Every structure is written in structure tokens, then in C-alpha cells.
Amino acid sequence: MPADKLIIALPSKGKLGDDSDNFLARAGLPVYKPNRRQYSASIPSLPGVEVVYQRPRDILSKVSEGRADIGITGLDIVAEHSQDSADVMVIDELGYGRCALLLAVPDSWIDVSSMADLADLSLRQQESGAQLRIATKYSNLTKSFLYRQGISHFLLVHAEGALEAAPRMGYA
Length: 172
Fold this sequence. Notes:
Elements: E1 6-11, H1 14-26, E2 40-42, E3 49-54, H2 56-64, E4 70-71, H3 75-80, H4 115-127, E5 132-136, H5 139-148, E6 154-158, H6 166-169
Parallel strand pairs: 1-3, 1-4, 5-6
Antiparallel strand pairs: 2-3
């Protein structure tokens, strides 16, 4: 990384990407990207700055590895990977890009309507030699949440994308 350049990593697509570009524009720092398919850009009012577009989950590692000086990504990603990036600090929450992490069960589980019910199910499965299987892309956050709820017998299945289909597809 050139010492005379400040490299800013921004989300490459989606709502978080659009909101980040708009945030900088409202701050008087519009990003100039001559071609939407390009992954590098500039901020004309800041000649020593280079903008690189990355997937939100890659931004944290780019900053941690020193390949970007600053980045905008989701707090969910920072929280999930904080142990891998202890040298990265959150400067501020920007007030956009909200997300919620949800725990859902199949509609057919009519006897599970609370975390206490899920804890009971986990214990029953443990007693019968089975395991509660949970699909997630946030293994660390999910594990921490379940432990706080008193649920310790489960198997996390890492998955990306539409996790609602996991029970129907048989992997969670």
C-alpha cells in the first residue's frame, strides 16, 4: 500500500454500498466511479484518497491486514469476526444499513414458541442422542446467543443465502 495514499474500502453492491456512497456524497465527498463495474474509484476533492470496492465481509479483513486504511461495513460482520480482527476499532455507527439477526423454527414445530421451548427441545434431543441443528452464517454470534439462552447442545451448520430453506433441504 503506497504511503502517500489513504485507501478507503466501501461495500461494492447492494443497499449498504448505495447507502455508503450516498453518505459520503452528503458529507461533501462524492465518490467518482467512471464505470459501475469498476472496483476502484476516487474522491476528486481528496486527491490522496483511493476508494476500493469490496464485499462487506471482506472489508474487515482488508483493514485488519493493512490493505485498506479505513472501511465501511456492517456491525454484524465486525461482531462476528471481532476475535480475528482485534486490531480494528469501530469509530462510529453511521445510522444506516440496519440488519437483524433472527432465530426461526419451522412452522411444524408448534410446541416451540419461545427460547425456553427451544432449550427444552435441545435437552430432549440430547437425551435421545439427537442434536439440534441450526443453519447460520454468523456462527460466533449464534453460539454466543444460544449459550446466553441456556442452550448448549446444538450443531451449527454454516450456510449462506436463503437460510429459511435449510430445514426443508434437510441440512438444519
